[in-house]
Design goal:
alpha/beta, Biofilm_reg_signaling, TIM Barrel, five-stranded mixed β-sheet, 17 strands, Alpha-Beta Plaits, single chain
């Protein structure tokens, strides 16, 4: 006879298993929900500083604007960018730079109210949301406190780092009615602060909005310029004191089909800020080496090609490899290439960072310090680094014949030339524009000259015409009197506005 409780017992056990499974499922679902919430939080936080990122900042700004609409209040938005922070990364490495950024975040946070939001927008950029302001001036007062918080030095290991910032300020409703407009306008004001030297606060104006739009359009045009063949190399001749052609400095120019010529002072900083200088700089190096190799093959006299190196190119790990490849591909001899680096750039480098200079010098490449005399006062690096050339900054050349006489730079120029010659370095004077400057530089013992008096930057065909003129004059002079000194007249060049040589 079957057990009457058998089927009931089996059903009861099945029910227990079912309930147990459902319990585990509910626990799993709860765990999944918790992980999803944590993931959502992480997606709205900056991994380095732990501050809200751009997503959370935008959400909070939108909510603050809704409240301000209802209560007719004011909301402040600040955009803060640390000045020249790339130098900190170059000096300390990215690990040290990250530690400084964490310290910056803590200091800035300490100046704000509990209801304010400090967000890290990536890198060394921060944004601040100031809800429930009494008036727009409250945003400016908050910005001033942020600047003051950055004044004490930061510590990274045993090093002290001094920082400043550029801050753009705007407020709802006077400077914008929606989140996107306010963020764009704060950024425009920040860029104005940077253009005026940094370590300052700028408030948004309607003019800044137009400038921001033009900046965005120019950046997009610059991205297309290399691909569309709008970039061009110009060559400014350099001469020995006796009139012989020494070579040329390669200078980048941009001729936009609609905008026309865009000044280098306008597009080169933009290219560096957006890292476009890396592909553009590599193209400029390869193109100028290719062109100089062709000219060198057609003239018996050795010519030197000077090419500028930006801070971003220098910091890039394989820039010396790019130089070697450009020489190999073009066939230009290494000793015919001179790389120009600014004094302040060289002084910021550690021992390992300047190893590429030593490697390039070993194969014959020359190394020049550009704008010499405008940077650091320490001259120890002249012996420590494989430098071959000093380029006297044009500000010293312009002041050679200054009035009254005590304002003249003659004593400084003489001292620099004597120092350079004692170290067996070549001296090139930049920005020579008058006969008087040339004559004085000759008396002071300068080696080479460059400037508008001698020749403006020329496109490749113009420089080629100069080379042909030099060859013709030499040929005629040799036939007339083999021992006669030949003076080389420069070809006429079109007039141009007086601007800095770059």
């Amino acid at each position: 006879m079957p057990n009457p409780q058998g089927p009931n017992l089996k059903g009861f056990l099945r029910e227990i298993h079912r309930l147990d499974a459902e319990g585990r499922l509910r626990k799993a679902e709860g765990r999944i929900a918790e992980l999803e919430r944590r993931l959502s939080d992480l997606n709205q936080l900056d991994a380095l500083t732990g501050l809200p990122n751009h997503r959370r900042f935008s959400d909070r700004l939108t909510q603050a604007l809704l409240q301000a609409h209802r209560h007719r209040g004011s909301v402040g938005v600040l955009h803060l960018d640390l000045d020249r922070f790339k130098r900190v990364n170059e000096l300390l490495g990215h690990g040290g730079g990250d530690e400084v950024l964490r310290q910056v975040a803590r200091r800035l946070q300490g100046t704000l109210r509990q209801e304010d939001t400090l967000a890290c927008m990536g890198g060394d950029r921060f944004m601040v949301l100031l809800p429930e302001l009494k008036d727009a001036l409250g945003a400016t007062r908050a910005a001033q406190k942020l600047l003051e918080a950055l004044q004490p030095p930061f510590l990274a290991g045993a090093r002290e780092v001094n920082l400043s910032a550029s801050i753009g300020v705007c407020a709802f409703p006077s400077d914008g009615l929606d989140a996107e407009s306010l963020q764009v306008h704060a950024e425009s004001a920040m860029y104005r602060a940077k253009e005026r030297g940094g370590d300052r606060i700028e408030c948004f104006t309607a003019t800044l909005s137009q400038n921001s739009l033009e900046r965005q359009e120019l950046e997009q045009c610059l991205r297309d310029a290399l691909r569309n063949g709008e970039l061009q190399m110009y060559y400014q001749p350099q001469f020995f004191m006796d009139g012989r052609l020494a070579g040329a400095e390669a200078l980048l120019r941009w001729n936009h089909p609609l905008l026309g010529p865009v000044p280098p002072v306008k597009f080169i900083p933009l290219a560096e800020e957006n890292r476009l200088i890396l592909p553009i700089g590599e193209w400029a190096l390869r193109e100028s080496c290719r062109q100089m190799a062709l000219w060198q093959a057609s003239t018996p006299d050795p010519l030197l090609l000077a090419v500028n190196v930006s801070a971003l190119q220098f910091a890039h790990g394989d820039w010396d490899t790019c130089v070697v490849k450009a020489l190999e591909d073009s066939g230009l001899a290494a000793e015919r290439l001179e790389l120009e680096l600014t004094e302040s750039l060289v002084m910021r480098q550690g021992h390992e960072d300047v190893e590429p200079l030593h490697r390039l010098r070993e194969i014959g490449t020359r190394i020049a310090i550009d704008d010499f005399g405008t940077g650091y006062s320490s001259l120890g690096y002249l012996q420590r680094l494989p430098i071959t050339t000093l380029k006297l900054d044009q500000t010293f050349i312009a002041a050679l014949q200054a009035e009254p006489p005590e304002m003249s730079s003659e004593h400084i120029v003489r001292a620099v030339i004597q120092l350079a010659h004692s170290l067996k370095l070549t001296v090139v004077a930049e920005g020579v524009e008058t006969e008087g400057q040339r004559d004085m530089l000759e008396l002071l013992g300068c080696d080479c000259l460059q400037g508008f008096l001698l020749g403006r930057p020329l496109p490749a065909d113009g420089f080629e015409a100069l080379l042909e003129s030099v060859a013709t004059r030499r040929f005629l002079g040799t036939r007339r009197d083999p021992e006669a000194e030949v003076t080389i007249p420069l070809p006429p060049v079109p007039a141009a506005p007086r601007t800095r040589r770059r």
